[in-house]
Target: DUF177 domain-containing protein
Amino acid sequence: MYNEELNSEKLIFEIDKIEKKLNKEIEITDWREIDTLNDTAKVMSPVNVDLELKKTSKGFDLNGEVNTKLMINCSRCLKPFEFDIVSEITAYYINKEFEKELNKTEHLSSLENIIYYKNDSIDLTDRVIEAIILAVPEKPLCKENCKGLCPICGEDLNENPDHSCEKEEVDPRLKDLLKLIEKED
Model:
């Protein structure tokens, strides 16, 4: 997977350099492509990360926002289009030494996005990539009323809305129903 190759030194923070709270704006300009759930997308603008890391008694709370622009393919007409990404990131980085203690605590074990760390640094790369991937719709559309492709010949119905190459065949079991509908018109 291509995302495993994505990294940035700007997203790695030394723990001992974070006193109480760290606010940081980061611009990543060297990411060219990212694997989404459906496809590989080109990164069309820098990935901007606005984050806040707050020190807690057991680790760090991460909150922030990720912004960029991707070139993705429409799921109906298959044409590439630019898609703006605006996504929130939230995670709880907890020191690995507290893992057993926290698993016993019902309240904290119900929290989502808990990441345990054991080194002297925290790498936020995976959270930023995750935020981008989750912001891309499962079925991206170039426009809400995209008509897609003709299922018979593949003609783009957005460019040729009057296109028709399929014969209107009616299921023989429904012919009588069609006659009723035609009489009402």
